[in-house]
Amino acid sequence: MALHRDEVVRTALRLLNEEGIDGLTTRRIARELGVQSPALYWHFKNKRELLDLMAEAMLAEALPPDREPRPHNWPEWIAADARAKRNALLAYRDGARVHAGTLPAESELPAVEAQLGALCRSGLRPRTALRLLLTVDRYIMGWVTEEQAWRQDAADRDRPPFPDEALRELPLLREAAEVLRMTDHDADFEYGLRVLIEGFRVEIAREAREDSSASAARPPDGLA
Known about the structure:
By secondary structure, this protein is mainly alpha-helical.
């Protein structure tokens, strides 16, 4: 039977939801496809490359590569992309663990360049713009990893975490107990995302001041 790469990736994603990443092996995928394991390596070099392809497939629909970031509303599209990526990863068991450690595929680099261009036109330097994208991406990865672990382990807990009696003598934690218990993942995610974006607003203003000072200190052409 002739295999196609998309078929291998789709099967791997289905098995991911059934087995989790720890149970996802090339042998298991090959058995599901009715082939021997070596047949899979016509389509990817190793399991890391397969995970990269799976991560790309997870996000392809939620984050189409031809989307157009706009400089005048960069906080809005950064936030919208972050929400879409979080939801796409949450749609798969261990989605964040699959995506962790991946690099953009060559086909995705023009989209990254477009994002950097929009951020630079907003006032960021290229290195700072890329750091913004990476910082938000790593926030999403860390957040979704914790969120998925929390949700998956909930059934194994014999009682709700941090019961009231445990917090009776801890008034500050008692007041913030709902955050401690992670009762509203959406609200907590949005809070962290907003803080990150506001921090980069400050960074844009700081770099603009630095650039303005450097420009003012530079002698006019011909006078140096």
